[in-house]
Q: What sequence folds into this?
């Protein structure tokens, strides 16, 4: 795939930002292959993402950063630039349920997901063989009510050891300790099996059956210290009827979960998601 | 349209119910044009709806009721039979917003909704001309914090006067008093502009914007004494993005609201909805 | 609503276009409230749409055009700039079916569609009262196999007389003569009641029933001289089942038709649609 | 899972069919857990599917068949009864593309698809390792323009050898010879990567890009001798935009393809699909 740089910017809205950025790029012959802007009126913030062909620029990322810094400073930008040829390093966390993990592994295996998968960490050993078939390291870190600090220290150590950029909770089913959420803010993605904010917490399909809703859903979001309350990246739903039991919902929900997680993860990996407050801008 | 009887049954599940009912019908040469069954395992209840060509039976509804009564009693049935040529009488209640009202009026005017519309009751006078163009009586019953008992007595009187079977809150925006909800249980349909149980109560689109959801929704449900908590008939959603303001959500939501309400109302009018507990069976 | 200018550009792709345009705008203190770009690789074309707050610029549209002309010329642009406070003038054409017409009239009446509706032209007189209730002129121009040249000359005369920008075939059911299509290329919008290219031509729901499809659809497109083959603006579908008769499809299809037409028309009115070849770029 | 018998019936519509069948069942204490009927007016045909708890009946399938035969004969039924504990035997056929095959294998591995997978036959060797990890026999039967009769004789032999009930073309990309289609009519399921009847034949995503459609789709259907023209089981679509290249469509389409195929296959395996003429009744 063609190598592109992705320039992602958040700053207070003002006249002339696009001109400054596009002048900088065109001044260096940068070929913009995709551009997205968003001016958020309520917050007065401006968001921007550009994809630039790497081979159109006369310098590398490091020099880009140096040269662009004055503009960034002038506009009060929170910004980053990434290289599509330096894919993010992802740690997948799972439990016993295989559907989300298998889906991500297959997409990665088919070159559909632009990332490296550093390892899988699971609190059960069930999925080891599936993971190892993909030549990905599998770490079994059991979690029980008595060993949590130790277990999560191990998890934290593995994330560090693999220098992971991103952690994906592929139906991990354990609540991460606050400090882990905090340290990796905006970099841990969870899939929750309900259309949040409905049915947060445990057993959402049972809650949905109890309430008699006519659609079930799934939500992909960044993890924060507050359970199931982080910035939402994507959501989708599936129609159900009175004939569907909780077991049917679990089965039908799996397809929604894995599709929503794959979509959200893809956008994250391509730097299409910008967190602002407790919401996201998604330049999909 | 062909005249049909609709036989709608709820009873404890047991072997032989379908046989009893279908024997009764075939014994009288009844031609079943549509049949739906549902055995609900958790509650041990059985639900059934048959459409029978009226002209295939040698008797009228009254005699049907007499002859069927022994079977109904034997099986402990909660049942009703209705005649497609005796459409339900509907009272529409509205406020200032026209989209749901205009949609229902147009569907009725185009012979798409099998009902009579007895009148429109509104707490503002804005929509009078639209209603009267359809040759439907319009009653302006203003509601304010100080006149509620009197206003709702008037509403209640109008519903009685028109002998209405069904009341539709087409974005009425006022909370009905508990006794009205109670008297017309299972016969008052509301459209709420959120995907319940998320964002019950006031200003759901503002709540949705605040939470940063990626889909907005609408819910059609029977009204009970608990606000926005009655049995859900239908729901649907519409995709939004970070670019959509609350005003955009309001606009996009209108289409979901009117489609969900029209669908739910149609099913109600055709006796396709059976309430059980706080849920519905919908033989759509 | 805030007054904005909409600058819509097509030109051969090259480095520096965005810089030139945004320099021009920021050089005059133009406040961009929305921006969309698309570089189409296969054709080597670049498409761009900017919304600029009118009150942020020190000049009017005419002067904008004069000042911008050199940049447009330099880049080989096909471009236009429009003013949100000069809404397009729309002629609606209908037959007997009311659903699309009623839907557009109601949206317009509710200030949801940013346009003037100049008049309705229909080849039957059925919908006169509905149109006149909205205080919109209604012209009955009957079309039959023998009077087509005369009838369409009258239609053409009316479009001229009202200085209409846009013609909407709201289930008009007559084929326009080629010269009319040609004269108003990119300005006549049709709704076809199938998911094109399937089921072009007459009685698409019958064709769909015959084929046994599981989804029916509708397509909003610009009219060209080739029947149902013009550039597609929007499409959508609705799920059906074996139980749905052709009559059910017609009924269910109406909702898809009117929603797709309303969405496509709205995008057209806001200058969000750019035709390239036989396709469209839609900056929705 | 609870053992059920599935009684599936097609016959000319008449009064009393349901009564006869339900009398038979209730006369033997049969507990119906799910029942679906459909009277197709245009063809005058009646379709019925009952699920009956196996342990509620005092006899086995063979005796059921003997006892039910008189009723079947009287009503001119085309019928079958199957046992949920004798899952169908499925042969999967694939080429190089893994997404549909991997999806079916994972669902089967997770006990989501009620079938045995007898083997995978592929005309390339690429997917051998994935298949063998699941402990399923993999047969590489290369097909080229010169060896077709021999290759398909081998395929045919394998299907016989494994006594397969059902053949699934999981993006097999080869056209089966007419006699194979004929011998296994109603038992070969294909996934075509377009919303049929649009874009039959080769390279449907290229055709879709050429036409500029705004939704892409997939169709699961029974294979007949006419390419992509057999009875449709299920279809679905995914929204695209001008930004999506053919490569994007291929990627987005994969999710639609695998979901539609999995859904259609599931319905087939549970005897929920009845072919009538070139259409299907699907009791989903």
A:
């Amino acid at each position: 795939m063609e190598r592109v740089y992705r320039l992602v910017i958040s700053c207070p809205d003002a006249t002339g930002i696009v001109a400054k950025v596009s002048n900088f790029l065109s001044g260096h012959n940068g070929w913009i292959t995709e551009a997205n802007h968003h001016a958020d009126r309520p917050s007065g913030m401006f968001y921007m993402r550009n994809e630039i062909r790497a081979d159109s620029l006369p310098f590398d990322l490091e020099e880009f950063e140096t040269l662009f810094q004055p503009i960034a400073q002038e506009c009060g930008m929170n910004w980053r630039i990434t290289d599509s040829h330096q894919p993010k390093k992802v740690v997948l966390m799972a439990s016993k349920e295989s559907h989300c993990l298998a889906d991500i592994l297959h997409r990665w295996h088919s070159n559909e997901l632009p990332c490296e998968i550093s390892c899988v960490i699971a609190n059960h050993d069930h999925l080891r063989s599936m993971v190892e078939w993909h030549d990905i390291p599998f770490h079994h870190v059991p979690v029980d009510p008595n060993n949590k600090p130790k277990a999560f220290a191990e998890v934290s150590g593995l994330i560090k050891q693999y220098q992971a950029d991103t952690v994906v909770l592929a139906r991990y089913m354990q609540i991460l300790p606050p400090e882990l959420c905090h340290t990796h803010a905006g970099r841990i993605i969870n899939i929750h099996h309900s259309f949040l904010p409905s049915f947060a917490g445990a057993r959402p399909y049972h809650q949905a059956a109890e309430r008699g809703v006519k659609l079930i859903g799934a939500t992909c979001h960044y993890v924060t210290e507050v359970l199931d309350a982080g910035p939402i990246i994507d959501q989708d739903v599936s129609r159900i009827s009175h004939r569907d039991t909780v077991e049917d919902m679990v089965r039908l929900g799996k397809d929604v979960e894995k599709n929503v997680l794959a979509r959200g993860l893809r956008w994250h990996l391509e730097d299409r998601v910008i967190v602002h407050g407790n919401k996201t801008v998604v330049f999909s």
